[in-house]
Design brief:
five-stranded antiparallel beta sheet, 258 residues, 15% strand, globular, alpha+beta
C-alpha cells in the first residue's frame, strides 16, 4: 500500500503542455515517465510553474493537478522556496546532475533521491525545464544479496565512523579492492558514489539528532563529522533544502500535526 494519499489522476497529464514545449518532442517520453513508480518527473515553464507532473509526484503530493503552480505553492513554504531557487539556477543555465537530496512531504513522508534537471530550449529565453528525481532504495547490511565480506566491512565503517570518516582509499583497502573497483561496486549496489553514500549517512544522522534531541546545531555538526559549522550548514541545506535550524522547526511542526 502506498504511504502517500491517493487522489484521482488526470486522464491526460500532457494536456497542459504549450505548443512550444510539445514541439521539442517530449510527449512520448513524458507519457512513459507517467508510469514509473519510483521516479518523480515534471516539466515547468520559464517561470518555474508546473506544466506536467507524473502520476508518482501527484500521488505523493496528494493532488490531482499542480498545473500553473510553483513549487512554493505545492510544498511546505520553506521547502518550496528552496526548490524554486534550484529551478531558477537551472533556468539560468546551471545543470543539476544526480544531485543527492532528501525529499520531504507534508505528513512526514521522506525519501532520498538523485535529482537531475535540464533547461529546455536554446538561447537566452528558455522554454522551461525538465526534471527527474529517482528514488534511492539503499540495501541494508543484513539483507543485501550483493554483500561480500570486503564491501560489507567498508560500508559498515561508513555507517559507524561517519563522525571521523575514513577516506575513499582507506575504505577501498577495508574492502580489499582497488579504489576504481571499490567505487564501481558501491555504485552498483547503492546507486551512489562513496562520497555520496558518506554524505547521505552523515546528513541522515543529523536529521535524526535535529528532530529527536535538543543538542545545539554546532554540537550536531561535530557529532556528524563537520568541524566547520558553515561547511555543515552548506552540506545540509544542499541535501535537504533547509538550514539545520529550519529543518528542526519543520520536523517539530510536522510532529505536532501527526
Amino acid at each position: 500500500m502506498s504511504p502517500f494519499p491517493l487522489h484521482p489522476i488526470s486522464q491526460n497529464p500532457l494536456q497542459n503542455l504549450p505548443e512550444a514545449v510539445q514541439r521539442l518532442g517530449l510527449d512520448a517520453l513524458l507519457e512513459v515517465l507517467n508510469y514509473l513508480p519510483d521516479t518523480v518527473a515534471f516539466v515547468k515553464d520559464a517561470q518555474g510553474r508546473y506544466l506536467y507532473a507524473n502520476r508518482t509526484l501527484l500521488e505523493r503530493l496528494g493532488r490531482s493537478s499542480v498545473a500553473g503552480l510553483q513549487a512554493s505553492e505545492v510544498f511546505p513554504p520553506t521547502l518550496g522556496a528552496a526548490y524554486t531557487r534550484q529551478d531558477a539556477a537551472v533556468l539560468a543555465g546551471k545543470n543539476l546532475t544526480e544531485h543527492l537530496e532528501l525529499h520531504l512531504y507534508s505528513g512526514g513522508a521522506a525519501g532520498w533521491c538523485l535529482t537531475t534537471k535540464r533547461r529546455l530550449g536554446q538561447g537566452a529565453a528558455p522554454a522551461g525545464l525538465l526534471g527527474l528525481s529517482r528514488d534511492l532504495h539503499l540495501p541494508r547490511q543484513q539483507n543485501s544479496a550483493s554483500n561480500t565480506t570486503g564491501l560489507a566491512a567498508a560500508t559498515a565503517r561508513i555507517e559507524t565512523e561517519y563522525a571521523a570518516p575514513p577516506s575513499v582509499p582507506e575504505l577501498a583497502r577495508s574492502a580489499r579492492l582497488s579504489v576504481t573497483t571499490f567505487e564501481r561496486q558501491i555504485r552498483r549496489v547503492y546507486g551512489l558514489t562513496p562520497t555520496q553514500l558518506l554524505t547521505r549517512t552523515r546528513i541522515e544522522a543529523a536529521t535524526r539528532l535535529l528532530a529527536q534531541t535538543e543538542l545545539s546545531v554546532a554540537q550536531i555538526a561535530v557529532d556528524c563529522g563537520y568541524f566547520d559549522h558553515s561547511a555543515f550548514a552548506r552540506a545540509f541545506k544542499g541535501a535537504v533544502g533547509l538550514t539545520p535550524s529550519g529543518y528542526r522547526a519543520f520536523a517539530g511542526g510536522e510532529a505536532l500535526r501527526r
